[in-house]
C-alpha cells in the first residue's frame, strides 16, 4: 500500500486525498492551521460555472470543469445545487451583456418575464439577461467539512498544526499548500468577499451583475445568507478588506437589489487565489520527487476534481508522462 503525505487541507488537498484513498493509498493530510478552512477555499463562492468563467478563461476551464458538479455529487451526495447561473446588467450596461455573450456559450437569452420567473425578487429590475442552465453551486464550507468527514471515515489521518514532517515515512509527498507554496511562477490574486444576511431578498441561484468596472456575483447560502464576491487584485496580501472594496461590493449588491442595503454584514473576508501566469492549474513533479497540485486561481471547486484525478493518475501509473497527461498543458499546446 502506498503511503502518501498530502500537505494542505484546502480544496486541492482534500480532493487529492479523496482520489488517492479511493484508489487504496494510505493517506495522511498535514495542515499547518489548527482546523479545516480559513484560507482561499474557505472564502470561495462555490460556483461551478465553467461556461460563465469562459468569459475570461481558457477553453481548458470548460473542458476540465464541465463534469465537476457530477464529481461533487458522486463524492458527497446532496451538496450540489443545480439551478444554473443568471447573468444580468442594468440597461445602461447593456454592452457588457453583449460582450459577455460573445465570449461565452451554452446560455439562453432571457427577458424581463423570464428573469422574474427564475428569480421573483428581481422582477421588474432587469430587462435582459442570460441564463446558464447547466451550471451549479455548492457551499464551500459545508463541502470542505463534509469531505474531511468522509476522508476520516475512509481511514485518512489528519495532522493539524503540522510542522515540517519528515518525508522519509512516506512513499510520496503531494504539496497542495496553495499560495504558501514557494514557487517562482506562482502569484497571488487577492479576493475580497462579504457574507450578508437578509430576509428581504431571496435568490435560488448565483446571480452575476455585469458592470464595466465592478462586476460582482451573489451566491445564495442557507439560512438567508448570501456570499457577495469578489475583488480581483494582483497581490498576495491577505490583510483585511479595504474600505474601497467593501464600498464597491456593497454598492454592487445594492444595485442588484436595494434591499441588500438593509442586510446585516455577517462577515468580511479575504482569500488569496494561487495562480500561474496563464491562470490554469497544474499537476507537476518537482526535481525532489514531490508532486504539486496548484494554480487553481478562480476555479478551486470547479477544477480540483480534475486535478486530483490527474495527480492520482500520476501516482498510480508511474510510467505516465506528466506533461503529456496534463489536460491544461495539452489545451495550451493545441491553442
Ligand atoms: C473570494 C474568492 C471567491 C472564489 N470563488 C470561487 C468559486 O466560486 N468557485 C471556484 O471554483 N473557486 C473559487 N475561488 C477559488 C478557490 O477558492 C481557490 O482556487 C482554491 O481555494 C485554492 O485551493 P487550494 O487548496 O489550492 O488553496 P487553499 O484553500 O489556500 O489551501 C491551502 C491549504 O494549505 C495549508 N498550508 C499552507 N502551508 C502549509 C504547510 N507548510 N503545511 C501544511 N499545510 C499548509 C493552508 O493553511 C491551507 O489550508 C474563489 C477564491 C476566492 C478568494
From TrEMBL:
Ranges of residues in domain FAD dependent oxidoreductase: 3-312
Cofactor entry: FAD
InterPro entries listed in its UniProt record: DAO, FAD-dep_OxRdtase, FAD/NAD-bd_sf, Gly_oxidase_ThiO
Keywords per UniProt: FAD, Flavoprotein, Oxidoreductase, Thiamine biosynthesis
Name of this chain's protein: D-amino-acid oxidase
Pfam family, one: DAO
Organism domain of life: Bacteria
Protein source organism: Mesorhizobium vachelliae
Catalytic reaction equation(s): a D-alpha-amino acid + O2 + H2O = a 2-oxocarboxylate + H2O2 + NH4(+)
Pathway: Cofactor biosynthesis; thiamine diphosphate biosynthesis
Gene Ontology terms for molecular function: glycine oxidase activity
Family as reported in the entry's similarity comment: Belongs to the DAMOX/DASOX family.
Record's keyword annotation contains Flavoprotein: yes
Amino acid at each position: 500500500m502506498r503511503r502518501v503525505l498530502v500537505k494542505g487541507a484546502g480544496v486541492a488537498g482534500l480532493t487529492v486525498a479523496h482520489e488517492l484513498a479511493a484508489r487504496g493509498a494510505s493517506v495522511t493530510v498535514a495542515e499547518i492551521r489548527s482546523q479545516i478552512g480559513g484560507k482561499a477555499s474557505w472564502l470561495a463562492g462555490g460556483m461551478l460555472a465553467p461556461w460563465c468563467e469562459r468569459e475570461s478563461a481558457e477553453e481548458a476551464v470548460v473542458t476540465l470543469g464541465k463534469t465537476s458538479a457530477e464529481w461533487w455529487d458522486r463524492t458527497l451526495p446532496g451538496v450540489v445545487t443545480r439551478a444554473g447561473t443568471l447573468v444580468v446588467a442594468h440597461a445602461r450596461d447593456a454592452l457588457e451583456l453583449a460582450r459577455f455573450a460573445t465570449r461565452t456559450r451554452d446560455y439562453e437569452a432571457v427577458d424581463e418575464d423570464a428573469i422574474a420567473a427564475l428569480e421573483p425578487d428581481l422582477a421588474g429590475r432587469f430587462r435582459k439577461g442570460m441564463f446558464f442552465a447547466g451550471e451549479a453551486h455548492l457551499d464551500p464550507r459545508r463541502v470542505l467539512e463534509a469531505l474531511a468527514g468522509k476522508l476520516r471515515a475512509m481511514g485518512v489521518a489528519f495532522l493539524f498544526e503540522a510542522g515540517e514532517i519528515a518525508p522519509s515515512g512516506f512513499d510520496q509527498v503531494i504539496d497542495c499548500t496553495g499560495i504558501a507554496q514557494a514557487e517562482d511562477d506562482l502569484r497571488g490574486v487577492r479576493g475580497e468577499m462579504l457574507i450578508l444576511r437578509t430576509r428581504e431578498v431571496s435568490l435560488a441561484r448565483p446571480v452575476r451583475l455585469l458592470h464595466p468596472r465592478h462586476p460582482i456575483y451573489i451566491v445564495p447560502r442557507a439560512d438567508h445568507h448570501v456570499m457577495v464576491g469578489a475583488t480581483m487584485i494582483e497581490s498576495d496580501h491577505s490583510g483585511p478588506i479595504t474600505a474601497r472594496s467593501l464600498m464597491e461590493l456593497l454598492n454592487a449588491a445594492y444595485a442588484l437589489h436595494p434591499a441588500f442595503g438593509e442586510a446585516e454584514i455577517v462577515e468580511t473576508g479575504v482569500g488569496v487565489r494561487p495562480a500561474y501566469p496563464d491562470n490554469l492549474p497544474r499537476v507537476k513533479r518537482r526535481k525532489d520527487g514531490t508532486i504539486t497540485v496548484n494554480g487553481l486561481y478562480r476555479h478551486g471547486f470547479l477544477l480540483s476534481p480534475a486535478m486530483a484525478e490527474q495527480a492520482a493518475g500520476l501516482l498510480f501509473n508511474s510510467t505516465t508522462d506528466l506533461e503529456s497527461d496534463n489536460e491544461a498543458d495539452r489545451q495550451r499546446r493545441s491553442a
